[in-house]
């Protein structure tokens, strides 16, 4: 009887082990899924407010976090515009992010191309604008609210005309200036187009001048960026 019981127990363990192995083999590895990621919201910023070290510094932040997320093989670009200044022309965010399509860390497509991304039918929401870790970014109603994303862009993805600062001195200032922000959760104080805009909702403001880390947190931000794979 003891031998029979042992035999039954060992048989049960073998079946359970086999089932576990099959389940593990069937499940797609998280790293492989992240390797297909072509869009994310940064889980954190460099920590110097809107002073990102210019476009190069912002792109480097995207590349660094993409590497941590398992998608380092791609060329990553921050969705940021710059304004014409010091003899240099403006740069449009929409022109530096590739052609698409773009999908998040969970494999959900947020836009098929540049026109779709800037159209009313894009699939960019709080549930799809995930970090490189596949996590939802805190939005309106969450503590802390982190839905303000640095863009410096108009709704169509183009730069603002020179004059009023909308890019914190082209992403080199953490004191005076202002940066245009988008809402990753598509929610704001009102139910209107600016409040629902993912890339052009309102400018930053605050006691330090508009561009510090503390200023960005004042209106519900944290110095976060949209990152797109350009290749």
UniProtKB/TrEMBL annotation:
<keyword id="KW-0732">Signal</keyword>
<protein>
    <submittedName>
        <fullName>Lectin</fullName>
    </submittedName>
</protein>
<feature type="signal peptide">
    <location>
        <begin position="1"/>
        <end position="32"/>
    </location>
</feature>
<dbReference type="InterPro" id="IPR016186">
    <property type="entry name" value="C-type_lectin-like/link_sf"/>
</dbReference>
<feature type="compositionally biased region" description="Basic and acidic residues">
    <location>
        <begin position="184"/>
        <end position="195"/>
    </location>
</feature>
<dbReference type="InterPro" id="IPR016187">
    <property type="entry name" value="CTDL_fold"/>
</dbReference>
<feature type="region of interest" description="Disordered">
    <location>
        <begin position="184"/>
        <end position="215"/>
    </location>
</feature>
